[in-house]
Structure formats: C-alpha cells, structure tokens
C-alpha cells in the first residue's frame, strides 16, 4: 500500500484558539485580494475591505494608491463603516470624515483636521497594497515579501491567458455564508477529486475533465483545463481564451478565467472558526451584465458553486464528530492533482504549518 499523507487534525477546523492564532500568523502577514484597480481608478475613489479580522481602506490619493486601517485615531470608530459584506467602492471628496466626531483625514491616512483643535501629527497606520494583473492585494505586514515574491510568475501566467484582466470592471457580485472553517472551503476549492461525483455540469459543460490539473507552486496553486469538446457541449470555441485557468493565492484569494475570457474571482473571508463568507465577483468590460453573461454566471453559481455549499457545511459537522479521525489523502507520484487525486490538500496543510510555525 502506498504511503498516504494524513488529513489535518480536526481541531484545526474547530478550535477558536487556533482560529485566533491564524488571524495573526496568517491573515495579518499574507497578501489578501481586496478588489481591482478599476475601483480606485479616479482620484478620490476609496475601497473598503476585510483582511482577516481587520478592516482596511484602499484609496486613490491624487493618483497614488494608498492603504491604511479603517479606524479613526481619535476614539476608534470605523472611518468608513462598510455597507456591504464584500467591501464597497465609493467616492469621497479628497478627504474622509469620521462619522463620530468629524475628525477628517487625507487619503494618505494623515489627519487633516480635528475640528480646529491642535492635536499634533496623527496618521493612521498604513498597510501595503500591490497589484497583480489589475487586482489589488493588501498585506498588513510591513516586512512581508512582495506579492511577486509571494506567488512568483503567477501574474504573468494569468495575463498570458487573460490579457484583458487589468482593464476589466466589477460587473456582478454574489456572496454566500459558508457554515464551515475557511480551510474547508479553500481545500474544497483546490481539489477536483470530488468533481466527477459532485460537479457534473462543470466536468461536462465547462471543461474537459480528463484535462484538469491542479499544480502546487509554493503559495500558489494553478488550475488548468482545456475547454469542452464543442461537439458534445454546444460550447463555441472563440479565437482567444478557450481554456480554463485558475490562479489561487494562499491563503484566500483566487482569480479564474473560464473559456471565453470570463474573468471571475473568489475571496473567502474568515468570520469565525466555523463561518466563512464567500465573495464571488465577475469582471467584464462593462458594469452592466448582458443576458448571455448572466446566463454564464447563473450556470456557474447554480451548479459548480452551489453544489459545494452543502458539502462544506457537512464536512464541518462531520469533522467535529467524536467519530472522525483524519483519513489518508490520495496523491499522485507527480504531485499534480487531477480528478483522481488531491495532492493540493497536503500542500495546503504544509503552508498552514509553515505559517503557524509551531504556535498551536
Ligand atoms: S472616533 Fe473618529 S472622530 Fe472621534
Ligand atoms: Fe467543488
């Protein structure tokens, strides 16, 4: 019998103390996707987002993209209370005024005025913002490697199959609350061992299942597949972008390109040890979605995405059972996962242990 790596101990998915360590060891030190450059293309545009257990603001300060915590340095009110779960893009007139006592900040995070009081130099702590093929990522850690060092070459690989990514705009967003730990969601996303059983539409209509591979490359996982056979699926091949590629960035961001240049993203926001907010966004040439584009979105959401919802919730319930012992994981000698193996799962566990560095 081959040696199989074992699954992760159940407590990593169920223990609130481990979740608290992850907020610091992972989410305060990793690159997390928060949106796209088109959302802050104009001076005065700002974007709010959740990074682990922190709120951040990304702003266009007269053409410079800045990032800082979403917290007033007076008595702690959120500077821009988020109006939606996904983080919102909005416009301000050059400054942000705190809703509590109306202290006002410049878009680099420095205090502009405290209603005429002299309070000294005050600046909101900044966060790093970097750009990956047009998508904006934030890292709270000033000493973290650059995004390009974090996932070397991934931006170029995405642009090779989806060259229009930097010009796209937000066209549609859907969210779903998963009753499971964020790692259950991310592991599920990054393995297709369950696809032939769970995702019949995806493996018959969107990709050719035999071509599906998931390759682990450090903190990145690159999913690839060729588009379906037009004869069998009715899918029409176009001149560009016939194949499927997805580019996962550890820990919780992924950019996908479906056949036909359908660029869409996954963000998983960990809310509690057993609750994760999924944010799906679709990025087309216009903010208005055509009937055909909405059909693609609906098909994706109603089949491939929704088929995983009950699966993930059920795994969370099962993992906390006294009757669960982590099982063997199925791997392939190449280390590349497919519809027959789940090599990416032990790889993700390795990234987890490396980030936690013995703290739990
Ligand atoms: S908490 Fe923001 S002005 Fe007082
Ligand atoms: Fe799935």
Arithmetic mean of pLDDT: 93
Rg is 21 Å
Broad CATH class of the largest domain:
Alpha Beta
So, CATH architecture of the largest domain?
A: Alpha-Beta Complex
Task: Detail the poorly predicted runs.
Answer: none
The strand count comes to 17
In CATH, the topology of the largest domain is named Naphthalene 1,2-dioxygenase Alpha Subunit, Chain A, domain 1
The CATH superfamily label of the largest domain reads Naphthalene 1,2-dioxygenase Alpha Subunit, Chain A, domain 1
Strand content bin: 25-35%
Overall form: globular
The helix fraction, in percent, is 25-40%
Q: Strand pairing plus helix content: what structural class?
A: alpha+beta
Q: Tally the structural domains.
A: 2
Spatial order of the strands forming the largest sheet:
11-17-16-15-14-13-12
Query: Tell me about the biggest sheet?
Result: 7 strands, antiparallel
Report the total helices.
10
Bound molecules: FE2/S2 (inorganic) cluster, fe (ii) ion
**Straight-line N-to-C gap:** 32 Å
N-to-C SSE series?
HHEEEEEEEEEEHHEHHHEEHEEEEHH
Short description:
The protein is built from ten helices and 17 strands. It is an alpha+beta fold. β7 (104-106) and β8 form a beta hairpin.
Features:
360 residues, alpha+beta, Rieske Iron-sulfur Protein, Naphthalene 1,2-dioxygenase Alpha Subunit, Chain A, domain 1, 2 domains, seven-stranded antiparallel β-sheet, four-stranded antiparallel β-sheet, 10 helices, globular, binds FE2/S2 (inorganic) cluster, binds fe (ii) ion
């Amino acid at each position: 019998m081959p040696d199989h790596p074992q699954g992760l101990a159940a407590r990593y998915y169920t223990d609130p103390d481990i979740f608290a360590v992850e907020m610091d060891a992972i989410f305060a030190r990793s690159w997390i996707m928060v949106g796209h450059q088109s959302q802050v293309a104009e001076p005065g545009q700002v974007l709010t987002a959740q990074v682990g257990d922190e709120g951040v603001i990304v702003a266009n300060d007269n053409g410079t993209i800045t990032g800082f915590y979403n917290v007033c340095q007076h008595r702690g009110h959120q500077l821009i209370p988020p109006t939606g779960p996904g983080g919102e893009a909005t416009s301000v007139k050059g400054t942000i005024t705190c809703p509590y006592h109306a202290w006002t900040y410049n878009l680099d995070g420095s205090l502009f005025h405290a209603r005429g009081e002299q309070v000294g130099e005050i600046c909101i702590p900044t966060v790093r913002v970097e750009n990956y093929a047009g998508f904006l990522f934030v890292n709270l850690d000033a000493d973290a490697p650059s995004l390009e060092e974090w996932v070397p070459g991934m931006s170029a690989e995405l642009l090779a199959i989806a060259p229009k990514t930097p010009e796209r705009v937000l066209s549609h967003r859907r969210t779903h609350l998963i009753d499971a730990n964020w790692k259950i969601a991310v592991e599920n996303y990054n393995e297709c061992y369950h696809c032939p059983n769970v995702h019949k539409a995806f493996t018959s209509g969107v990709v050719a299942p035999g071509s599906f591979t998931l390759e682990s490359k450090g903190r990145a996982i690159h999913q690839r597949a060729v588009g379906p056979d037009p004869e069998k699926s009715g899918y029409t091949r176009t001149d560009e972008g016939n194949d499927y590629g997805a580019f996962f960035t550890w820990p919780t961001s992924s950019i996908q390109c479906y056949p036909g240049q359908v660029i869409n993203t996954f963000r998983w926001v960990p809310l509690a040890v057993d609750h994760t907010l999924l944010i799906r966004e679709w990025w087309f040439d216009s903010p208005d979605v055509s009937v055909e584009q909405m059909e693609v979105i609906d098909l994706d959401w109603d089949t491939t995405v929704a088929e995983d919802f009950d699966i993930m919730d059920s795994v969370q319930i099962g993992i906390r059972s006294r009757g669960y012992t982590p099982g063997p994981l199925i791997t392939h000698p190449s280390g590349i996962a497919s519809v027959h193996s789940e090599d990416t799962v032990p790889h993700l566990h390795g990234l987890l242990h490396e980030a936690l560095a013995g703290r739990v």
